[in-house]
Design brief:
With 134 residues, this protein is an alpha+beta fold. Helix content is 22%, strand content 40%. It has one domain: 2,3-Dihydroxybiphenyl 1,2-Dioxygenase, domain 1 (Roll), CATH 3.10.180.10. The structure holds zinc ion (ZN).
Length: 134
Amino acid sequence: MKIKHIDHIGIAVKGIEQAGKFYTDVLGLKIEDVENVAEQKVNVAFIPITDSEVELLESTEPDGPVAKYIAAKGEGVQHIAFRVENLKEALDELKQKGIRLIDQEPRKGAGGARIAFIHPKETSGVLVEICERD
Ligand code: ZN
C-alpha cells in the first residue's frame, strides 16, 4: 500500500470549545469546521496544519466511543490516521498479511473521508486509522 502522509491526529476532548483555545489562541491555528458524526456520537473540529490536521473529538452522548475513551484513559491522543491512495486495496493487503482489523470494509468518516481502523493489538497499542479522500 502507498501511505501518503499523516492525515490527522484524533484527540479526545471533553469539550471542543475549551480544548480548542490552545490551538487557536496559543498556537494561532484555525478551527475550520465542526461536523457532527451521528453514528459515532461525536462532534469533530478540524484544525488544518499543512497536509495534516488535528481533529478534536467531543462526545455527544455519555455512551459514545469518545466518552468511553475519556472515562477509561482521560483526554488525549485517541488515534492517528494515515492517508492511503486506495483504501480498499490497503485493507485487502492488510487482510492478506493477517492483520486484525476493526473495520473489514471502508466506512464513512468525518470530512467526507472513507476510513477503517486497525486493531490496536497489531500496533503496540496505537489505534491506527487508514483513510482515503477524493
Ligand atoms: Zn480519524
